[in-house]
Every structure is written in structure tokens, then in C-alpha cells.
Amino acid sequence: MRDPFGLFQETISVSYANLLLEITHEYGIDAQTVLQDTGLVAAEMKQADAKMSAHQWSKLVVNALRLTENYRLGIEYGFKLRLTSHGALGFAFLSCADVESALSLCQQYFCTRIQNFTPAWHVDASFVYVYLDDVHPVKFGNTQQSDQLRYFLIESLLFGAIHFLTLFSQQMTENIVVFVDWAQSQDYEKVQLDPMQIHFNQPRNGFRFPKAYLSCKNPNSDQVAFQQAVLYCENDKVKLVKETTRDLQKSIKSELLYNSSNGYPTLALIAQRLNMSERTIKRHLQAQGTTFLQILAEVRFNEAKKLLQQQHYSIQDIAGLVGYEEATNFIRAFKKTFGETPSQYRKNYFSKPD
Predict the structure, then answer these.
(1) What is the pLDDT of residue 2?
(2) Which of 81, 177, 219, 222 has CB 3.0 to 4.6 Å from 160, enough for a Cys bridge?
(3) 3-state DSSP call for residue 118?
């Protein structure tokens, strides 16, 4: 699986990159310098249908952060992000009825623009909470670069959403509290956010605002334009599901492997990450002559074999690592699959001549 998460597939609109180039230009940095080693060409980025990959976008962001030396650039980017950059989803936002409609739109169609994060929101007695959760870990270069890239992406999305919501009510900004899951750093002192507050070291990334703003009306609401935009959003989502279905087994294996550190994810969670229903996944897998449980077993036992090739792991350890509470159940299932016990497999592996 050379590219299991589609990091090198050109699926992201270059409108996001063009805005970043506009911002870095204000810092006195020319486009060619920011585009260095990204594989993006300035002339080609002017084409209406131009796309870039997640890997190219990551390189561009890392370049921009390094060149501007502003590691809070994501906040500036979010406040300058144009809704039209989001394509059909942006136009649906611009014409929707109220804040509640906007949040529902985001939860339903956010996946058509960005797949690395997923939004969620809920309401309690006093506040509306909007969360942005990681779908996959952000990895690029070393740990520091990966963290800086992740912070930029999260801040640009959170503050982009806040920027849009304040179009419904300017007063909302005075009552928004932002939550991030990393520690505070000195560079936040240079960012003018008053009266908005940021709370650090929180369990989830997101923001909250008073429940009263949920019913704020959109002064530019247009139900005909809204319905047309939603149709385009739905078409984009159908296209996304088709692309995911094409390599469904590979996608499921990737999800199982990438998110196995705290136990293998359930079918329900994988369905959510792939923007598909459990029923749809089951139907497509059945047509391909397999099931989720069969794929899970394949992933489990392939991992078990790799672990058995490392002598410092006991059979009990390996059973736990691949999701078995009892080693006896693991041994029985392994033998049923391969015709030999884990201990026999390990013995035979190490007895092979080099």
C-alpha cells in the first residue's frame, strides 16, 4: 500500500494554496520561494480546475511557516479564508438560513473538502460546542514539523469557521472560547484575539459560543441558491464515496493498521472515517466475497506473524497486542488459520537457514 490515505492524489483545490501565497507575499516573500520543492507551478495554479495533493499542501505550509517565522500563521490564514475557497460547500454556507443550518452543513459535507479532520457539534443548556477531531495523525518530516503543520491546519480550520460564523453576528466573537490540545507558547502573545479566549491542553480541539447565537439569521439567505449548492455538495460526496469504494478493502486495512494502538477500530468507526454507512460497506464487501471480520482477522494475523518474528515478545504479549484478551483464544484462532500454533510458527521461522 504505497499511498493508503491518498496523500499523493491531487484532490485539493489550489485556491487554498493561492490564499497562502497572498499572505506570504504580504511578508515580502515571493511565490517561487514558497513553492520551492512542492512540485506546484505558479502558472498552472491559475487554472480554474487546478488541484494539489495533501503532500504538496503540507510542503507548502511547512515552507510558509519557516519563511515567515510565524508559527501562528494558521490563525491569520483562518481569518482571511474566503468561503468561496470551499467550492460548493462555501456557496451553501453563504446562502443557508442560520447558524444551525451552517453547522449541520459542515458536519454533513465537510468531508468533500478535507478528509484529515472531521467536525462534530452538540448543544447543552448554555453553549454550542463545535469540535474538530483528527481522522489520521499528521506526519511530515520530523516531530517538530509535524506538530507545526498540525497546529496550522487545526487553527486555520477553527478560526476560518469562527470568521464565517461572525458574518451572522459580529457580537459572537466577544463570546467565543477556543480549545486546543497543545501547550501555550510565547508566540500567542503576538496574536490579537481580544476578547476571544484560547484554553490550552484541552482534550479536544474546537470552540464554543452561547446557545442564543444558534438561531442567528443569515442576512444573505437564499433558499433557491442554497438548494442548488446542496445538490452540488451531494454530488461531491457521492463521487468521494465511489472513489473510496473502489479500493475499499485497502482503505479498511489502512484504517485498522493506522489506528490500532488503542485496539482495532470498530466497523462503525471506520464507516464514519470513510464517510460511508456500515450497510454500504457490508454490501460492497459482500459483493467482493469478503467481510469486515475476515479483513480484521487477516490484519490481526499478519501483525501477529511480524510480532512472532521478534523474540522479545511473549505469546501472551502478542495476543494482547492483536486484540485477544485470552492467549488461549489467540492460539486456537492462529492454529485454525495457519495450521500451526504461534510457538510452532516462531520455532520454524527461526530455524530457517539465512
Answers:
(1) 46
(2) 81
(3) strand
